[in-house]
Each structure stands twice: as structure tokens, then as C-alpha cells.
Design brief:
The structure is a homodimer of 339-residue chains. Chain A is an alpha/beta fold. Chain A contains 12 helices and 12 strands. Chain A has 3 domains: 44 residues, 434 Repressor (Amino-terminal Domain); 128 residues, Rossmann fold, CATH 3.40.50; 133 residues, Rossmann fold. In chain A, helix 7 links the parallel strand 3 and strand 4. The first copy, chain A, is elongated, with a radius of gyration of 26 Å.
Chain lengths: 339, 339
Amino acid sequence: MIDDKMVTIKQVAQRANVSTATVSRVINDNYPVSDEAKEKVQKAIKELGYRPNGIARSLKCNKTYMVGMVVPDISNNYFMDIARGLESVISPLGYSLIFCSTDENTEKELKLLNALNEKRVDFVLLASSTQNSDKLEKFIKQGMNIIMIDTSIDDLEIDLVVEDNYNATYKIISYVIGEGHRKIGIVNGIMEVSTAKERYKGFLKALENNNIEVEDRYVVNGNYNRKKAYEEVKRMLQKNINDLPTVLFAANNDMAEGTMLAIKELNLNIPEDISLISFGDISLAQLIEPRLTIISQNAELMGQKAGELMINRMEGNEEDYHKVIIPSEIIIRQSVKSI
Amino acid sequence: MIDDKMVTIKQVAQRANVSTATVSRVINDNYPVSDEAKEKVQKAIKELGYRPNGIARSLKCNKTYMVGMVVPDISNNYFMDIARGLESVISPLGYSLIFCSTDENTEKELKLLNALNEKRVDFVLLASSTQNSDKLEKFIKQGMNIIMIDTSIDDLEIDLVVEDNYNATYKIISYVIGEGHRKIGIVNGIMEVSTAKERYKGFLKALENNNIEVEDRYVVNGNYNRKKAYEEVKRMLQKNINDLPTVLFAANNDMAEGTMLAIKELNLNIPEDISLISFGDISLAQLIEPRLTIISQNAELMGQKAGELMINRMEGNEEDYHKVIIPSEIIIRQSVKSI
DNA sequence: ATGAAAGCGCTAACAA
DNA sequence: TTGTTAGCGCTTTCAT
């Protein structure tokens, strides 16, 4: 490393013949300073190439202007969209976003939260892939500010931004039943996680209300993972090749992609041979045939809402904890056959 | 906010009846401490729920364990892949990644670099969408550590990780010429940026070497942007509908997507009516028909290389500045017709 | 309007 | 092996 000379407020003060306090006042423009002093200071700053040290400032003010975001899978567009939404509200206010992926790994999730805690980020947006309320409570007790998004954990004093998983799933399953489907399969997510549970419950309820039996042989676990879903669906389809389900519901977008891949590989056509619906849209949906009938998720809005909650809390406006439920709608396209 | 009581090293020291220095030694495990003291301290830490304050540590040690990454477009998978590669090498060493998008906006790029500078991140990985060497030099003079990736700026004392844009483009264009194509169009990127320039040069050279004239009416500017590419290609195709180019080269993946969309919308088929090749793969390529013949980019490797350069520099091992050129290969699939 | 000085939480040089 | 203490760069109270 070259000359890593750090220019400090002290040097600026010296050069401008004022005190460090005055320099600080000029920088932050928060206390009266004479025009003359102001000018001298600004000149010195420019000449020295001075840049305020945010770390020192953070230490003093107990505020880092950093927000952490922890998600299970960085490559899933859904979480990227949430991040974008979050960014769009916090960035204009001067906050930076630290984006971390746990790869669905509980241990890594803990490690990342620890790191963010030590970095003293002002807030964390957590899309957890675990149901570990104890650990989370410890972080909260240590003064960490956390908002959960997507998944939730019960009985936690915490803000929540979630989707209406149960009802949305209930609706879309009811829709395919209305289209005449009776042999309905599901590709489940990680069943320890709230979203997967709720979606499965909505699925079951819709079947029940229409007096349709759940067929276990059409139920697979895709772990919210494209590859796993691909493998499991492929195996399931092969096993039932002589009595296929007429429709498959993928509990998230990644698994829908894996499911499409599996279907395609078995030389089956959507929706002629088998229909497909998904919770959440796949990426680049416009280019993929057929266009999928889906529950649309509005991830960006979720991120925005979470951002607003953060800001409100940091400004000390909020008292009670909120559970924000983001509505989702069904988008009917071409992947379901009427039978 | 609730009780935001911060537990400090001092309180731990008090409770354990030792000095703050001893506590620090236990935490960092970098100086000899008696087993007895160690135990007392660890007990106190647990009881109080103490977490080291990384900010204070950073101030003292002049090291933040944070790396910034600035890219033009957060939603382009190419940059996400680079980020993943970077993360995979720095994360195990305890570094966090701050990921920022400029939306191809020069002003925002400057603002983000400023913010990262004030946050005193240890290193910045910059995929610039500008050619502003002056500003960049100022940052470097202020002691900021920067590695450029993807795009480059000449005459800067800086590490570089780039692709072999010129040669890769030359090769793929030569390939389609070998397949009999003579009417060759190009969808250019932002022509102020090094990558776009180099790719265009490679394109021109391949034509020249085969005595093919560039046809201006087949050259469009897609600005490295999906939507723009879609619009411009559509317009160009409509204008030349009676004498279409036989093949189109998109200078990046996003524009390839836009180009596909445009072609599709005009009810043309790839490769029967028009062939398509791309610098970089589109996302979810497996699900999109036909599979595109492309220059494959190895973005993750680029990120890794950049990470390694950073680490080396931070450990003070490196002296000279390196220009790492990542090789790219042509992947032939089904989007080019032989004529 | 300005300056002196305390102190944010931590590390490390020095002394014991 | 342990404690004392200076100081990282900044903000802010208090005095002037």
C-alpha cells in the first residue's frame, strides 16, 4: 500500500486556523459559523483533500447508517427484488446496504447476524430460513434492530412483512380445481419455514373444501431449491408416468423453474400433458413458453414497506410492532389447461 | 427504541475483576492470559451478553473488514455472479460486502464512491459505467483502494480484472461468417465504456478480415440495457423487414434478452428467420428456446480473481499493478443457422 | 461565534 | 501475566 496518509479534522483545523469544533460545525452545517471561518475551512478541506471519517463519527454518534439484509439465497430474484425495494427507500436517506446470503444454512445465518451485530448496523432485514426464535431473541436483547420479511417466527416482539401465503395458495388451487383438475401435485418448500407451512396448509384446505383427497405420491419436497425440485419432480413424474397428476403447484419461483426443467426433460408439454402453477414468478418470464399462471408477489413493495418501518423506528416514531401483510394476486396466463 | 444499553468492555472488566486490556486479550486471543482470568472474563461476557463493538475496533485499527462493490446494474446476473465470486473469497476471511448499483448514472457512481470512502471500506471493486479517470484518481489519492472489473480506464495505477473482449468478439463473429453469414448486425453497448468499444472493434475487425462491409442500417445502440435494446432492435428490424440481417450480435446478455423479445414480437423465428449470438449468457438459459450460441463469461471467476488481488494487497504482498485478463470461450448451441 | 476538552469503545505500548 | 494509559477521529457541552 502506498502513502496511506489519512487527513483528519485536526489538520484541517490547523490549516484554517480554527478549532476542530469549528471544522466539525462547517462540515455538518448544524451550528452557526461565521462566513469567514466557513470559507477558510472549506478552502483547507479542498486543499488537503479531506474526507470525514465515518467510522469515528459512527463511534461518537452511535449510528452507522448501514443496514444489513440477510437472505437464504442471493441468486433468487425474489430476494433481489426485496433488496431493490429496500434500497430505494433507505439509499436516498444515506444508508448503505450490506447484502448477505446464508445459502439456507442455519449456522451461516447465525454467523452473519453476529457479524452484522458487531458491525453495529442500524437495522437488519432478515428473511430467515430457520425457525430459531431463541437465538433471534438473544440478538434482539443485545439491542439489535431486526425486521423479519417473507418468513415469520411466532411470539417475537418484532416487525414483520409477510405475504398472505395461506389465502393466496388457497385461491390459486381453487382456481385450478375450477378448471376441472382433480389430480393435483405440490412441490413443497422447506417445511420448517413458515411460508412453506402456510402454503401447504392453503393447498390442503382448498382440496378439502372440494372433497379431493391429497395424493401423497404427488407430493414432493423441493426444499425451495431449483436443483432439488428438478430432481424430485423428475423422479416423481417418472414413477407416476402412467397416471400423472394433471397439475403441479410449485411453492416458489425457483422450484417452478426446476419443475419446468423436469417436465421438459421428460418430453412432456405444458399445459397439454401437465399444467403448472407457481407461487411467485420466474425470471425472464416473458421469454419462457408457456407463460406461467402464478401468484404474483410484489417483492419490491415488500422491501419498501420494510424500509419504511425501519426508518420510522429509527426516527423513534413507532411504538407497537406491526405485521404488514402484502397482498398478492393471481395472474392467469397459459400454463393451465381446462379439463 | 427500547433499552439500547450497550455493554462495553469496561463493564465486562469490572464484572470479571480484571482490566480492560485483559478482556481485550481474551476476546482477540492474541496475547497470553492465565486460564483463570480467561474463564472469569468469558463468564462475564456470557452473563452480560457482551458483543465487541466493531466500530470502535475499526477506528483504532484503521480497518473495517468491509468491501464495497459498485456496479452499473444490480439486476444483471453478470454482476451478481461477480459479486458471488468475490464474496466466496472474502467472506471466509471475515469481510462483509456492501453492494451498490449506480443504474448507469455517473453522478450516482460518484456519490456511492464517496459514501464508501467515508465509510472507510477496506477495498472497492468497481465496475464503472463511466470513463472518468480524474475523479477516480482523486479517490485513489485520498487513499482509497480500488480494483476495476469488467470495464477499464487507461493510464490508471490500479488493478484490473477484465475480459478479452476484442478477441472473443472477433472469434464469434468469425464463426458466424464461417457459417455463411454476410449480413451481420450488432447491438452495441454504451459506447463510452471500454467493453463496448472493444467488442465493437472486434466485430469490425472480423468483418474487415473477411472483406465484408459494415452495414450501418444493421447497427443499433442498445446502451447495455434490455428495454433500450428491445426498442431499438424492433425498430431496426421493422425498417429492414424486407432485407433483414441474417444474424444479430448482442454485446451483452441483457441486450440479448431484449433482442430475443423484439424478434419474437415480430413473429420471426431464431434461427430460421434470423440468427442470434450474444456476449454473455442470458439467465435461465436452459429454459429458453432456442439455446443461444454465446461467448461465455466466467463472471464468478472474475469476482474470485478480484477478491484474491484485494486480499494480497491488503496483506501487503503485492507491489506492481496487475491486469488480469479472464479468458472467455465460445459455446455453440442452436441459435445460428448455416447458410 | 468560537475554542477547550471530554469521551464514544477499543487496542497496544509500556511498565510492573 | 497483568494493569495503566494514550489515543484512533470525531461531536458536543460548556465556557467564553
